[in-house]
Amino acid sequence: MMTSKGCNFELASIATCNHDFFPLHSGGPLKPGKSRVLYGVTEEFPVVAVVGLGEQNQSSDPIEERDETKEAVRTAVAAGYRSLGELGLRSIQVDPCEDGEAAAEGAHLAAFKYQDLKSKKKESPVITCFKKDDQGWIRGTTLAEGQNIARRLMEIPANILTPTNFAQEAVNCLEGLGVEVMPRTYEWAKARSMNAFLSVSRGSGEPPVFLELMYRGKGLVDEKPLAIVGKGVTFDTGGISLKPPGNMDKMRADMGGAACTIGSIFIAAALRLPINIRGFIPLCENMPGSIATKPGDVVVASNGKSIQIDNTDAEGRLILADALHYASQHKPRAIVNMATLTGAMAVSLGSGATGVFSNSETLWKAMHKAGTISGDRVWKMPLWKHYSSQVTDFGLADVHNLGKHSKDAGSCLAAAFLKEFVTCDHWMHMDIAGVMENKDEVAYLGKGMSGRPTRTVATLVELIASGQTGL
Predict the structure, then answer these.
(1) Does Hydrolase count among this protein's keywords (predicted)?
(2) Are 161 and 50 in a shared domain?
(3) Is 122 marked active-site?
(4) What mean pLDDT do residues 54-74 have?
């Protein structure tokens, strides 16, 4: 074990090839999150990455609003993995550094690569923990796996991941863990007057699917479920209100809320958490077909409220309107919805945090605590009557999908719109548009679709299941 100021850890790898010996030298102190690869240290571990963790006994910073010790471990282990990952090693063993959960998250999140469509795939080394049967490591591996499931789904091209195929992916991911996966058809949605949802799908040749999921904690037959709702637009052109072509390919990830719903329920089921969860995912494409919804059209949602649609690119709130009403009918203990809903949220917070809106202080405090633990933070935005009046006191219908002053506070107006379709006392809308993609902001994720905030929602689920939230 190599040590320096504070606490360092080693990532030891078992190589498949011989390496020349390089003499050890200090090269100066390691900065936090930086790595140095040493060769010929021992016969058992001919290649070792030593990475700086920084100061010991870091605590949660009230300004940063996250557990800095956990975040340092995630970042450091990820740096160590990357420094070894391209060396053609068969396996890498990781020192848990007194937090196996964070170490496993850092290693497995850094190891993710989307290679499904490559004819020649790079084989990744097997990642294990020095300490056998480390329960934190096992749990962290599961948390990372759930987020990586969401990342993979978000990366799959839209011609492959259609609404129908997304439903099959949910079957593949969840049924083996005992989660009931129920894909509902167009006719099912039509019979329930989900006209807002179906209006978005009109221009596409791909049939819509309303995906319903049920995880039952052991022995909890009659307990009220937690509802998780995810926006599932598998490709968003904007419809008749067509988006500009630049970066439109990234709209394959406009089902990020749906992907994170799958990932978070996967974690709950894999950890066998004692809680009931119902998932609701409206899946469709938003395309400019010959019978697509037109600006100015009015539809009546499943709760009986009429909606004027003046911009077909504000479609996520339409499909969520029916999904939230349907979720509310199941009398859940709380509802959390995730959606890549507004570009305005990306402008407001960038990739720093998920913007959240809630009618419940209890749910907000629980989610804030979850984000502090996971390192994937949330920031509370206003859900005031000031915004509600702008979407309800305007236009031809009960609710307007843009609002009176649509160029201002777009994420707040979208949240106010969703509120009109919720009857649950504990509801939270998570606008994940700003965290959809990672460039270099989160060191242990790498470039590509992020799968955020899967681990935060899974942590919330565990806090609720353990009775720590009052929900």
Answers:
(1) yes
(2) no
(3) no
(4) 84
